[in-house]
Prior knowledge:
Blueprint: E1 2-7, E2 10-15, E3 20-24, H1 26-37, H2 45-55, H3 59-74, H4 87-90, E4 99-103, E5 105-106, E6 128-129, H5 132-145, E7 151-157, H6 165-182, E8 185-192, H7 199-208, E9 211-215, H8 220-226, H9 236-252, E10 261-266, H10 274-283, E11 288-293, H11 309-326, E12 334-335, H12 348-353, E13 361-364, E14 369-371, E15 385-386, H13 406-409, H14 412-419, H15 427-430, H16 435-438, H17 443-450, H18 458-482
Helix pairs in contact: 1-3, 5-6, 10-11, 11-18
Amino acid sequence: MVYLFEMKGRRIAYDSECSSIYDLDALAFRVLGMYRDRDGKRPDPDVLRDLSDNEEFAYEEIDEICDSFDELIKDGVLFAPVIQADYSTLYPDGPIIKAMCLHICHDCNMRCRYCFAGTGDYGTHKRSMLSVETGKKAVDFLIAASGNRHHLDIDFFGGEPLLNWPVVVELTDYCEQASIKTGKDIRITITTNALLLDREKTDFINAHMKNCVLSIDGRPEIHNKMRPGIGGKPTYEPISENIRKFIVSRENSDFAYHEYYVRGTFTRHNLDFSEDVRHIADHLNARHISMEPVVSAPDTGYDIREEDIDIINNEYERLAEYIDAKKNCDRPVHFFHFRMDFEGGPCVYKRLKGCGVGSEYVAVTPEGDIYPCHQFVGEEAFKMGNVHDMDRITDAKGHIQHGKFIEDILDPDVRKMFFERLMPDRPECKKCFARYHCGGGCAANRYYSTGSLDEEYKVGCELTRKRLECSLWLACVKQESEM
């Protein structure tokens, strides 16, 4: 699919099937539109002569442009054929679980207004802590379920995982010992609100965890409004100071790991969220930033609505200009949703899978219950099983009794529910130029915004497309600066 759009004085064409990007002048842009209207075929000479006569372009120039496009089409880098992929292509050996969101606790020391986890207890009104025993069984489950996969990912999540810090430490050691024993590369991420992030925890995270995600919403008035502590206490000052210190330590330490993201959420209360990204970059000295749109019920007052899309799209453009302006300074800023590799990124088949919800990725609660992802936790209809069920299929020495144990633990109907909804069979996705960069969108966002796993979350789709446009614009600007 060839997609044409204009942004900030540039006329850009993008072939989604081969990731080719073209920064065009006005005439070439017009002519390529004619090609697109004819499914990649050269316009008739009479049509081209009409363009020449009516727009006062030299016919020879138009003809030369067409020759160039024809050559690109012949080389397969323009109007490339649609990539055909089915489930057997995506999963030749069947879906294999390789990633886990491990809930270290269902409790939190903050009371964020938009929290999908119900301030930590996931709507159960029962606050709980993951035990070391259940945590180890979750790790064992991931290792066993991963088959021949070498790289495995575990995200220590909550609630707030730092509330259960001793278990974090013990499970980290268990993962490292299991990596040595099994030959698996178990990569750990921790997601924290940073309220309890002190020097001891920072040093441990730097030494043992591949990534760290730190939550703050930006400017003090925005953050304190949406992310108060218990009893409504402001949290911006301690959190911002802890994040600032963590970034300095993370970037300058001699430890093995330096990757991090400072993550915020924007709502209707801060549709000018590019200012919050600037604040995080300038005041916290952060280089790696993500700012996510809230997904919430329409009666909250802070929900993103379809009438907000134009405002948000303009804000993404402002943010793209800011990212471009920072690219040559000492501390360039990387915005998560604009970092798309159009050359050496994931192959198209990996992009088609999206996050692999329920097929390659699961979440485990403190009680050991298994769900398709962290956002479905508490939805009993989507409960897949429990890691303690492994006791039924292990011998006295803890060895799995047979190879295909997954079917004995995970509910096949729930797994099928998500497996059958991967992107290749979604009609709307097939018509979208952004389909290889979003994996069909977030299943949880679709479910909670529409009540269905099948209906499109229109706001999410529109914002995804705009973020891709900004990424393409940044790629063109970068390409021009390197010429």
